[in-house]
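Readers of this paper often ask what the protein records in our data store actually look like. Such a record has a labelled line for the sequence and another for the backbone structure tokens. The tokens are whole numbers drawn from a learned vocabulary of local backbone shapes. We quote a single record here, exactly as it is kept in our systems:
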Amino acid sequence: MKSEELRQFAVLGGLLVLVAAGALTAVATPAPHPGGDNAGYLSLAYGLVEGYGYVELWEPGTPNHTKYPPGLPLLLGGLMWLGASSWMAFKLLQAVCVSAAVLLAFAWTARRSGPIVGLAVALTTLLSAGWLDASRWILSEPSFLVWTFLALWAAEHALEGKGAPQERTADTGWLVLAGAAAILAFFTRSAGLPLILALLAALLLARRFRPAGILAGVLALPAAWWWLRARRGGEGAYQAEFWMVNPYEPGLGLVGWLDLPARAWINLSLYVGDILPGEWWGGAEGALLAALGIVLVGLAVWGWVRNLRPRPGTAELFVPLYLGLILLWPEVWSGDRFILPLYPFLLLYAGEALHRVGCLRGPAAGKAAVAGGVLLLVGPALPGWVAMASEAGDCRRIAEAQGDVFSCHGEGFRQFRDAAAWSGENLPPDAVVLNRKPRIQYVLAGRRGRTYPFSHDPDVLLAEADRLGARYLLMDHVDGISLHYLPAVIRARPLAFCYVRGWGTNAGGMGTDLFGILPPEERRSGGDMSELGWCPEGYAPSTPVEPDPEGRRVPLLMTGGVGRD
């Protein structure tokens, strides 16, 4: 890179860092995510730091965890080891990772098409709703994006750029960095496998057989360990859920190989017609949104095809492999979380195609076409960022005034937190609670649990409770799942349950309720809800402690989890 280009790269990169810092700070929210993955990662990190191993502390029996690779838990564990305990401390790590990923996407694009194009792609990517939102939650996407674009940037240097003469010698340092980053991506998310395969294929196409063999050999041992670990057990692994019609409705059954093309078409239609264009055009809907998505993806496909000559690079191989993976996942999983890594590629390829179209009327028209395309996305995206920042600002003020980061959530989730805090103080240390969010309950209360069976048959739920030794069932209002299954279960066998405690009243006059599950010998058939009584002695203390829930810090890190009582 010439000195003038290097100076331009540094100036624009510094500007990008400042813009990213301001944009992500504005949308930062102190509220914990209501999804279980965030709590799951924290629990896994806690187990590593405390020496329990990579196990599911929230599960009865603490089985080995085999679903999420340990990349993010290791990062979170490092923060815990340094003394971090607040929700915001772990959220800050995510914002830093998104900023770093934006900078690396800029570096990768600038290496290919120059700093100006790199800045346009990076800023447009940053302002997508998905990348902004990823910076706010404790999930694997931000660190996965860092390793992905670090690997691609290093691969560009290692292979001397796409289409370079095959006789050139790869830069060893860059190649080691590319391989290491690709392996870290794989051990952050299993979806990093396409990146590994793309890098290996790019090396083979460039006739770099020795580096390809070394990369495969280095990956083989940890990959074999992870594969064998998954083979030995781990309920709810992706391999099993992949074949379900809907992982949240097991009764719908499984799909077969012949069903996968139809699933891919449904996912593709959803991504092209809604999710992708909605990342920038959040206010649009219907035919306009679908038309924008078709044009955007159509241009990107054209640009990608043109980049296949004279030899596809790592990026050109990664895109179809990764896209194929997410198109085959169950439709219910489709969302911007899984497609975030493709945004810079989409924008770069579409921009190149748009530039070529504009150049039919001259070089100036080509640049004007690209500038217009950027404005067409960034313009509508700015109001979305303002709205997200306004919502986050309101949450920060409410949380500061009340001293409680959960105050930003709705009544249902606050009741769940209160129920978990009460359970941590009053239920026996070995209590097992069937509930909708067992990982969150464990992080908040230190009490193990399992998601209740998604079935309306009370015998199915009672059999699962007996198998796990569960004596409690929590019916919450975090989402609609509990109300879809549990009222029918309890109405069908009211004399198999007893009542422990309730919290609040939601719309419809119902609150969050904790039930006891009676031992098999004490359960009776028949009866109606009027006969469901209070639980006998032993389910809860006669004079329960009314806790003051922790408002800013992660309770698991303040009181401990396993054996905390």
